[in-house]
């Protein structure tokens, strides 16, 4: 056991496959043999642009944060996992002592160590150590690929919880990329009666319908917010009371403020344009709430239960599979969206 081939981003557009030493787990950690790693939009941005918002790649960094693996060995304080256990890896380990950690909102911890967010290494490699309590044992009826996809699913579950999606909710999801799709699937599982999605790209809306959206509305760059709202009302038959914004586009936020029912909630998942121009007065007078969404907090167990119980089928998101050795091709596929790519998954097991 010496092969620890790792996908390392040196700088913008400089991704190399190199050997690294196999790490030793600390007392409260496990050593994992990584199995599946999904590619997320942020990974592609780090590779293509060398940065995402204020996070800049300044030193070589192992990519990958949507991952699962098999426990190889455990630190001496670890009691709930043993070698051979298959686990999903929650990639952000917070400080556990700050105000936010103590209040149960550890996703807001300023000192979180998050895989593949500079300066922290991710786990697109063969062997990797992680805090044992951020590893979730998979039941026998779940695959390791499904385990890796609990990461994006948890974003969707958290978005729905922030928006207050529950039995009977009428939900609008703006943007039908991977995050919009998992939000739609999570909303369904949480009991929403109707889910409608909008996007600029017709093929993405086709996928949305196949994966369970009740209605889809195609918008263009020239569709006004009034026109879009009218189409949404027409399809849904009533106003949505929850909106999950997953495009990051100003135009979608404007549509959301226009169409959301009074007292409804808009959860902002998409992080796109920095300064956005919206008129808030009308929505404020109607007590529409706009809430931020950042990653997830305590959502892994719920996402796992959704998949294990068959309420959400995350496998349907996977369009492409590659080996670790073919990481560059995998990233290129995710970047271009070639072949209708939605979720590209890399298998890290030595073949
Ligand atoms: P993506 O780029 O694959 O999907 C975005 C979708 O929005 C695309 O299908 C695109 O066609 C559509 N879109 C763009 N402009 C639109 C418009 N004006 N109207 C309607 N649809 C429009 O991205 P993704 O991986 O699905 O992620 C979605 C967003 O969520 C990104 O902004 C990403 O940064 C963000 N994100 C946030 C968190 C968080 O913690 N809040 C976590 C993961 C991703
Ligand atoms: Zn903290």
From TrEMBL:
Entry annotated with the keyword Metal-binding: yes
All residue ranges annotated as the Enoyl reductase (ER) domain in the record: 12-346
Entries under SUPFAM superfamilies matching the protein: GroES-like, NAD(P)-binding Rossmann-fold domains
GO biological process: sorbitol catabolic process
Alphabetically ordered keywords of this record: Metal-binding, NAD, Oxidoreductase, Zinc
Cofactor or coenzyme needed: Zn(2+)
Gene source species: Nicoletia phytophila
MF (Gene Ontology): L-iditol 2-dehydrogenase (NAD+) activity; zinc ion binding
Protein name, as recorded: Sorbitol dehydrogenase
One Pfam family this sequence matches: ADH_N
Family membership: Belongs to the zinc-containing alcohol dehydrogenase family.
The keyword NAD appears for this protein: yes
